[in-house]
Automatic annotation (TrEMBL):
It comes from the Eukaryota. Residues 1-19 form the signal peptide. It comes from Periconia digitata. This is Glucose/Sorbosone dehydrogenase domain-containing protein. The keyword Ion transport does not apply. The keyword Signal applies. Residues 41-368 form the Glucose/Sorbosone dehydrogenase domain. Keywords: Signal.
Length: 372
């Protein structure tokens, strides 16, 4: 009784004296149960196999096969050589929409070449073995950045398949800035392809040239998360420079302004005009100053967290947790920050509505989030 009373009193003091805003109160207790499954060296991305096992990429070039029921992991061999360093290495993994029939998986990664490193996307057939591992075969590079650069920064290259079977790639500008505005290169773009790497026929610049034909939208910096909402609209999160992380609604042919406009400033302190100075560019639906460092995105569609349906859930590095934003029509607004005490690298929603996340860094845990 005493204990309870003093706890209540202490809580009242903390909330009263410090004046914690009420929107942040609910984040004191995590609104979900998190179950740690496995631990990984610099994990980047997760993908669900039909048998409920999970593929996890690790940045040095390892592809792991996780069995969540046993909390064990095996190795998939045959991953291409990756350019590990800076932010580069093995990045995303996605299953072909007809994976159940063709066993094809897609990987994005940084590759070395003339001038440094650039992003690439390859596909291969995945054969699972009886020992909790497997092998890739017939690997084929289907897309790559049109130039490479030193420094190892901002490759991004999230992969996502749409309901029309198209493959979407969120292409970073590898810290080269102006190429994000160039229509003769594919840096700093959202790319839409067929599953074989050929440009999608309905793309907005389809008749303007081979590279132009890949481009769905331009003017992106470091787009690390893409997902569709229930209406089939594509949303994207990208890291801005110093300030100015963005949540964008992606429209065919639109220019999102980088590096000509931003809500942030350059790392050397130079200012950048804001989106409001250039109404011809698409402004973000939400932005963050200071940054949250968005590293992954889902638009929640399940039933396990009914209050989050239709919301953007962003895995965030510098906010060390999840950032939830509500979407109303064409607008978006931050609604909640859920501190998890760790930089959160990746996020995916499973078909049962559970949310899976992976932490960043040396011992990044794969975790399943379910309601309390
Ligand atoms: C790639 O797939 C598209 C759509 O199925 C097809 O039209 C095109 O011919 C294919 N390209 C190659 C090189 O196979
Ligand atoms: Ca922008």
């Amino acid at each position: 009784m005493h204990l309870q009373l003093s706890l209540t009193f202490a809580l009242a003091c903390v909330t009263g004296v410090l004046g914690v805003p009420s929107q942040h109160l609910e984040t004191r207790q995590q609104p979900f149960k998190s179950t740690a499954i496995t631990s990984h060296a610099e994990p980047w991305a997760i993908a669900f196999l039909p048998d409920s096992r999970v593929l996890v990429t690790e940045r040095r070039g390892n592809l792991r096969l996780v069995d969540p029921t046993k909390k064990t992991q095996g190795t998939i061999t045959g991953v291409p050589t990756v350019a590990y360093g800076g932010q580069g290495g093995l990045h995303d993994v996605a299953l072909h929409p007809k994976y159940a029939e063709n066993s094809i998986v897609y990987l994005s990664y940084a590759e070395s070449g003339s001038g440094g490193a650039g992003g690439a996307v390859a596909r291969a057939k995945l054969t699972l073995d009886a020992n909790g591992g497997g092998a890739l075969s017939g690997l084929e590079v289907i897309w790559r950045h049109t130039q490479k650069a030193s420094g190892g920064l901002q490759f991004a290259c999230r992969l996502l398949f749409g309901s029309d079977g198209a493959l979407w790639i969120s292409s970073g500008e590898i810290n080269q800035m102006t190429p994000a505005q160039s229509m003769t290169g594919n840096l700093g773009k959202v790319i839409k392809l067929y599953d074989n790497g050929t440009a999608f026929a309905g793309n907005p610049f389809a008749d303007q040239g081979t590279v132009q034909a890949q481009i769905y939208s331009l003017g992106h910096r470091n787009p690390l998360g893409i997902d569709f909402d229930a209406e089939g609209r594509l949303w994207e999160v990208e890291m801005g420079p110093m300030g100015g992380d963005e949540l964008n609604l992606i429209k065919a042919g639109a220019n999102y302004g980088w590096p000509l406009v931003s809500e942030g400033r350059h790392y050397d302190g130079r200012t950048i005009p804001s989106h409001s100075t250039r109404p011809d560019f698409a402004a973000p639906k939400a932005f963050w100053v200071p940054v949250i460092s968005p590293a992954g995105l889902i638009i929640y569609k399940g039933d396990l967290f009914p209050n989050w349906k239709g919301n953007a859930i962003i895995s965030s590095l510098s906010a060390t947790g999840l950032v939830r934003a509500t979407i109303t029509g064409d607008t978006a607004k931050e609604a909640q920050r859920i501190s998890m005490g760790k930089r959160m690298r990746g996020i995916r929603e499973d078909k049962d509505g559970a949310i899976w996340v992976i932490e960043d860094g040396a011992n990044g845990r794969l975790m399943k989030l379910t309601p309390n």
